[in-house]
Amino acid sequence: MIKILAGESVSKLDQLHCKNANISSYELMEKAAQEFEKWFYQQEFSKESPILIFCGSGNNGGDGFAIARLLSQKNHKILVIKCFGDNSKLSADSSKNLEMLPTKVKEVFFKEFQAPSEPCIIIDAFLGVGLSGPLRDSAKPIIERMNSLQGKKIAIDIPSGLPSEEMGSELSFQSDVTVSFAFPKLALILPENAETVGDLEVCDIGIPDTTYGEFEGSLYFIQAKDIPALHKKFHRFSHKGDFGKILLVGGGHGKMGAIILAAKSALRTGSGLVTCHIEESERLSIQAALPEAMCNWGLIPNADYYDAVGIGPGWGIESRKNQLEALLKDFHFPIVLDADGINILAKFPELIPLVTKNSILTPHIGEFQRLVGPASNHQERMNQAKDFAIKHELILILKGANTVISMPDGRQLINSTGTQFMATGGAGDILTGMITAYLGMGYSPESAAVCGVFHHGLAGELAGKRKGRGTIAGDIIESIPETYFYLGIS
User: Fold this and answer.
1) DSSP characters for 43-70?
2) Which DSSP string do the residues of 182-231 spell out, in sequence order?
3) Rounded distance, CA 275 to CA 295, Å?
4) pTM over 0.85
5) What's the CA gap between 258 and 252, in Å, rounded?
6) Which of 40, 373, 428, 474 is 20 to 30 Å from the Cα of 19, by its Cα?
7) 156-200: pLDDT as tens digits
8) Nearest-angstrom CA–CA distance, 354 and 394
9) Cβ(174)–Cβ(196) below 8 Å
10) Considering Cα of 30, then 35, then 38, then 40, what sign does the dihedral take?
11) Each residue of 284-308: b (16+ CB within 10 Å) or e?
12) Chain centroid to CA 442: how far?
């Protein structure tokens, strides 16, 4: 996993990598431009659309000049807008890339810029992560002009005007997509900045994880390459018992859909045997909707039979305190608590010490607020989650865009998968089933949490590409098996 560093450490990271890899800072800038170019061509933009690249005098501008050169070689129509005076001092690498622009790339200073009449592709390579303090008055007209243009807007590394670790409070470039290099800056994953950042893409520029170890920090970014090594291997003699026997507790009157979704997602994740503990009156719902799952009710006769337990989907909270207390006393291994399981803990916090250490709680923001109290912004909420996980020695998964997994040792792992199309009823129940399935297969609680969150978001992405705004929970479930093929996991 890549460590998320403070913006002030970016240049130090680059310098250390160049030293360790025995490359120049110019070569690293070229690598960043090449990775952007790869991403750009995957989008299949029309070559008929003019590309306007707004370049500052620092290294962010140097990225822009290099990108202009590379795209011009593929016969795109490029106009470079130089957002500095003709007597400005450019960084060494930026100056070199400016000099290397081919003659067919048109250049103009910002004060002379006249926008084309047709829609364009607008690339922001103006300020980058070097912004500190209030935005200069001279920068505001440039950002305002970029925002006024019609067309696809793309920010390089970070939208100009946005601080690297904070919520934006001043004028910022309003991007449709932000293409960040090496790791996402903290500001890019804060929901308050969503309209400024747009979609987030992170390009690997070859800096190894070991280099990040030289820097302090407890935030990490989960990537696809991290996931295969976390998975257990199964062989052709494996049987359903090896894939785990799990129990899901929930499904009150009128809310059976939640536990059915959790059970189906557990089975699609690979769980060997799934039992749903429900009200006896609701047993036909499970047996009709999901014949692959078993069900029981009343007292649980043999708690030791199960390898993992998930509690909460559709359970309800009325008259459930004693049941939850009994379950917490019966199961002495890490469990999963979601939805009403968390709401009961919030209502009766004296039960929290009964939750086995390293258990996994999966609240959405509303449930989290009931559990720990309100927060004024997402940064404060992340700090609350971190403190809760450390204090109670639990794993807390704060669900949302860029889901945050807070570990008992203080680390926070930021997920990179997911899509807005997952904002649909039942998506959280699916995650409960997936994580419980991984626990049942014998995964460590941390691996179960990370794999569950990553595969859940990836399944949502795959479903969203096919169904768009019409994506429902069932579509996400049906995409879970595809995530294994996507990651090369057998």
Assistant:
1) TT--TTS-EEEEE-SSHHHHHHHHHHHH
2) SS--GGGG-GGGHHHH-EEEEE--S--HHHHTTS--SEEE--GGGSGGGS
3) 5
4) yes
5) 9
6) 40
7) 999 999 998 888 877 999 999 999 999 999 999 999 999 999 999
8) 11
9) yes
10) negative
11) ebbeeebeebbbeeeebeebeebbb
12) 25
How many whole angstroms separate alpha carbon 290 and alpha carbon 278? 14
- Other C-beta atoms within 10 Å of 176: how many? 14
| Distinct helix (H) and strand (E) counts, the chain | 16, 18
CA distance 35 to 306: 47
Kindly report the backbone phi and psi dihedral angles of residue 243, in degrees, each rounded to the nearest multiple of 5, phi listed first: -90, 5
Task: Provide the residue type at 220 as one letter.
Answer: Y
* Cα 228 to Cα 67: distance, rounded to the nearest angstrom: 33
Average pLDDT score, the chain: 94
Task: Give residue 362's pLDDT band: very low, low, confident or very high (50, 70, 90).
Answer: very high
**Residue whose entry in the numeric block shows the structure tokens 């795209």:** 71
**Three-state SS across 433-464?**
HHHHHHHHCCCCHHHHHHHHHHHHHHHHHHHH
| Residue the block writes with tokens 């929901």 | 191
CB atoms within 10 A of CB 149: 15
Residues 6+ apart with CB under 8 A from 466: 475
Give dist(CA 264, CA 157) in Å, integer.
40
